[in-house]
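Record type: monomer structure entry
Structure origin: computed from sequence
Chain ID: A
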Amino acid sequence: FCCHSCDPGKFHLAGLSSSMAGDDGILDLEDLANRYDTQVLREYLLEQEDTAGRQAAPEDPANERRLPDIYDLRPRCFKRIRGLLVVNWLAYWSAVSYCGYNFYLKVEEVGPKALPPMEVTLLSVFVLGTQATLEFAASACLAAPSRAADARSAIFTTWDIVGWLTGAGARCAMLLDVLCMPLMKRGSDMLFLLSASTFVFAIVLFVFTVQLRLLIGLFCGRDQYSYDKPDLFFKGRDAAGMIDGVPIAARPRTQRDAEESDLRLGRCPPAHAIKAANFAHLSDLLLMQGVLRRLYIPMSCQESQEFSLSLASFSRCFCEDVVQCSIKFFFLMDCEVNLLVLISLLVSAAQAASSCLYSSTSAMDLGSSNS
């Protein structure tokens, strides 16, 4: 029985709840619509939805995707990294020039069957090995803050090691391409013309020149040139799109943007870390570039980094590696079977495949899969 002071809606809801319990929770909406008022039924369904939402178990914080911690690259650390990159660049291209000229003299003396002399072999192994060792050590120092924050985490991921090997293979393939050109010149003028033209277009123009331009930008604080901004190659700074390093926004800053800024997603891009990562990438120091991108560059700048990596890797693969592999194959078939050319062919083919695989895999996808 219900007194006159009771709310009729509550009485109907109580009867509706008892009828639901008797039917094992199975809702027959057509029968309910015939037996109860539509307004009462709507209020009951809304009440059940709110109750289910409150009783829902909270998600385990361990299963939530955790945003990566982004660290600041201190000016002193940036100067040391810059010095290492400059020394690496000078040492590598000096070794390439010396080894290429020394081996050219040997080919002119012996012929297309010539192999690199001992000093060329030792210098090549020393330079490539020293580069790989210093890159590994510098990357370990850059990853130290992450290790200090979480002692259980590894310094490098598996994909960092893949990048380290891929970068070493790219530097080795470029050196072997230079050593093979004297053999091409002695074996066939046409093959030499194709090989030299390909190297000048793909490496000298789009690698060496861009490296030199990025090297200049490392010493200019206001320079904003990067691989994905070719329009800034000569002017260096876009005055229309940037004011003192801060992008001009198309809309005012909202509360959500402020929260994302606190999560280090939308803060001002770290110019020093981006410059060092860009130059390390163009110098095939992919381990260092990967550590800088993962720990020192916020997610708001990740897309441009991955675009530059994919563009440079695929363009070098199809403009340099594939063409040079074809030229070396024809040299082995038509001119002379030379062990150096055969090794260079295998290294270039393996490096092209690994470089495309490495650059086509998103770092964000790897981070989500690891978590």
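Annotation 1: The first helix runs from residue 8 to 22.
Annotation 2: Residues 125 and 172 are 9 Å apart (CA to CA).
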